[in-house]
Amino acid sequence: MSNEELFYKPQNVYEKMDAAETAACFAYAEGYKKFLSAAKTERLAVKEAVKLAEARGFKPYQYGKTYAPGEKVYDVNRGKAITLAIIGKEPLSAGAYIAAAHVDSPRLDLKQIPLYEDSGMVYFKTHYYGGIKKYQWVAMPLELHGVVIRRNGTPVEISIGAEPGEPQLVITDLLPHLDSSMGKKTVAEYIPGENLSLLTGSIPDKEEHDTPVKLAILKILKEKYGIVEEDFLSAELEAVPAYDARDIGLDRSLIGGYGHDDRVCAYAELAAILDTEEPNKTSVCLLVDKEEIGSEGISGMISTAFERFMDSLCRMDGSTLYDCFAHSFCLSADVCNAYDPLFAEVSDKRNNAQINCGLGIIKFTGSRGKSGSNDASAEVVGRVRRIFAESDVVWQMGELGKVDQGGGGTVAMFMARRNIETIDAGVPVLSMHAPFEVVSKADCYMCYKGIKAFYAD
Ligand code: MN
Ligand code: MN
Asked: If pLDDT is split at 50, 70 and 90, which confidence band does 187 have?
């Protein structure tokens, strides 16, 4: 054994990949960029997932029907979460290989009474969703997506600003010339939450009215979408950055875009299960909503929609759900923070995931002494080490910042609560939760490769 072999050193993915694999990595990134640009909300992500799955032979799951090993199914939960599965050769009591990611991302949701006019301009009021730095969302183009349910129960899909030439929305910022007092405020105080209002119009209607611009906008909404102001009461409309994912860097090694957290892992899971054939254990790909606000809610990871689906699979071969969970293994596929030399002071460089060093495994998240963390066991880390070593997956260990610097959580603990062995694994991200996040193509590819190896184990 050489002296070098005694040491552990994270590897750079590019040192490991040959020309053919580098080409495969860049080709994978093209598919991901397309997905990310189309999947700007959880509903749109689920729609894209269904489209990709159906093209690869996945069929809507029918509760109560018996499926043979190798059959591919998907089940959509209320348009906002989706579970895909390939029935394994082994019974469900032997456990399933589950990869779970979330498809919701930080954004600005319209309030339920959003429209108002002030000083000849009309605005949509918003309430932010997830952890954002509010100052990052002003003075940039935004588009709006979602659904409005009218009083008679009929839905209207809304999409404004995504197509070329369509108008977009914006939140205005203060000019630097006049920010002498604002400049003293903290980053958190600078843009008050109630100021996150989307500029939506400015032409007054010629009819006599107190709010002639609002009247004009309401007429446009009626004409284009068939909705009236009251319909916003039962609407879910999300303002998201209005730009597509694109290459970053002269070497095109990085991808910038909105919502890498956690669609980068969601897409990796999806691509991995689409490329899986006849697994030994049942493969499950779970894409859920609501992670950014605590995983609660009927479409979140805590919802027993997951139990219902898995229990239904178990009933096909007489397995019990408890036995299935006890023998299952879950990769909680969520992004981790990439080491950023511009903010070196918040990380322990030796233990932080780095760009281009592969899939990040996070043994524990949480804060203040790992509180609120899944904290995977040595045995669980050992198991993924074996799987990745056998399949040449470049991976690294990461952690969420320096001890006592802050922290956060993922869906991992909610899977572990079900008595499922679970570990966090995901792509390192720069500028996480910003409207324009950055990931490395090499890490995206290794995430896909890692999940594929996991399903194939
Ligand atoms: Mn996440
Ligand atoms: Mn997040």
From this structure: confident
* Res. 407: pLDDT tops 90: no
Cα gap 258→39, rounded to integer Å: 10
Neighbours of ion ligand 2 (CB under 5 A): 261
| CATH 3.40.630.10 location in the chain | 3-105+258-456
Q: How far is the CA of 205 from the centre of ligand 1 (A)?
A: 44
> Mind listing the pLDDT tens digit for each residue in 205-225?
999 899 999 999 999 999 999
How many A from CA of 431 to the centre of ligand 2?
A: 11
Nearest-angstrom CA–CA distance, 435 and 322: 40
Query: How far does residue 426's CA lie from ligand 2's centre (Å)?
Result: 12
Which of 3.40.630.10, 3.40.47.10, 2.60.40.1180, 3.90.226.10 would CATH assign to domain 3-105+258-456? 3.40.630.10
48-52, 237-241, 402-406, 436-440: least confidently modelled range: 402-406
- Whether 182 shows a pLDDT value over 80: the answer reads no
Give span(s): CATH 2.30.250.10, the chain: 107-241
Residue-wise pLDDT for 355-365, tens only, equals 999 999 999 88
CATH superfamily, domain 107-241, is Aminopeptidase i, Domain 2 (2.30.250.10)
C-alpha 67 – ligand 1 centre gap (Å): 33
The amino acid occupying position 235 is: A
Write the burial class of residue 233 (CB in 10 Å: 0-12 exposed, 13-18 middle, 19+ buried). exposed
Q: Whole-angstrom Cα distance, residue 262 to residue 376?
A: 20
Q: 432 C-alpha to center of ligand 1: Å?
A: 9
